[in-house]
Amino acid sequence: MTSSRTLFGPVLDQNPIMAQVLGVCSALAVTRELEPALVMGAAVTCVLAYTNVAVSLMRGVMPRSIRLILEVTLIASAVIVVDEFLKAYAPDTSRVLTVFVGLIITNCIVLGRAEAFAMQRPVLPSLLDAIGNGLGYALVLATVAAWRELFGAGTLLGRPMLPATDAGGWFEPNRLMEKPVSAFLLIGLLIWLLRGLRPRLREEVAGDAPWRDQEARPS
Amino acid sequence: MTHYLGIIFDAMFTGNLALTYLLGMCTFLAVSRRVGTAVGLGLAVIAVQSLTVPLNQLLFERLLTPGALAWAGLPEVDLRFLKLILFIGLIAALVQVLEMILERYVPRLHAALGVYLPLLTVNCAILGASLFMVQRDYSGLESAAFGFGAGAGWALAVVGFAAIRERLVYSDVPAGLRGLGLAFIVAGLMSLAFSGLAGLGG
Predict the structure, then answer these.
(1) Quick one: average pLDDT of A89-101?
(2) How many angstroms separate the CA atoms of A109 and A17, rounded?
(3) What ipTM was reported for this prediction?
């Protein structure tokens, strides 16, 4: 696997949220506005990079039986640093993100990549993989958040883009975009779009559906 | 009494962890193909939540809040930043102990829960409930009520979702939307239904 594939593969083709189904919770919950979503993307990328590098450095000396506890402790310390940093330098965003910064610990992207990639690879590819996965995660978050903020409040990053009716403009903000339901729908549609572009990622559910078994067998 | 019932109702319906705060989604989406397994998972979540939230509250109040270590001669120490490590450690330990007890005394339930019990350690609904407990300043009894309500609400959501997905297998949807894409959209519609309960109770 070449370096550029390690770095850019997870951005779209192997996107952690849309293809690997990891780290979905926070992707849904912090996407009401663009700014916290970008901060969250950066925070997850930092934690991922630190954990992947640390796990990759320690992969030779870590006993297999207690590796999960060690990995979770590594992740938790990285998350505490990020959390304290945000509280000090971006208190407003930290307040919007509430518990979701702490929940990076249980974000399955971090543990998933540490287990699946960094445990077997040297440091440099692990770092690239972490950055790639972080970018892929941030990309989905930013797309969903930009859409929700633009149509939910008519703003982007807090700046008015579509003049809202209550400020004398023509745009009626879509309140549905502020509800969690819009995050589910948007990610569902994004997955549809990605699978339309990359048919390889489609799910074979023929085994689950009795009628499809008989009708759709390739002859 | 009504105060505690209110907290339970609030955690189950108006502030449902799965459908309002979108926590525990990885497990929610992965373990909802059959109603049977969803029921088992739901029961495990109720048990773990009802135990971890009050225990975490106790530890947080007795060890980490400013002044909690006064008995050790350290009245001005504020260890609240350590809550993440403490909570995740307690959750991991408790899940482990629960698994051993179930395996020894209720092997049938243990077999039914299978791999989902250990996986609860990394379920963000569990850690999330403890963090909400800190954020909302719940007392001991309040956090016990909140833990039970949060677990029951999550279980309710996952069982309902699994029941819908079992029927969806028979529907004919566009190829790219099959499976995960449709699961997201269905979860979205369920979340819309639950947001209709907002403002009730309190």
Answers:
(1) 82
(2) 8
(3) 0.76
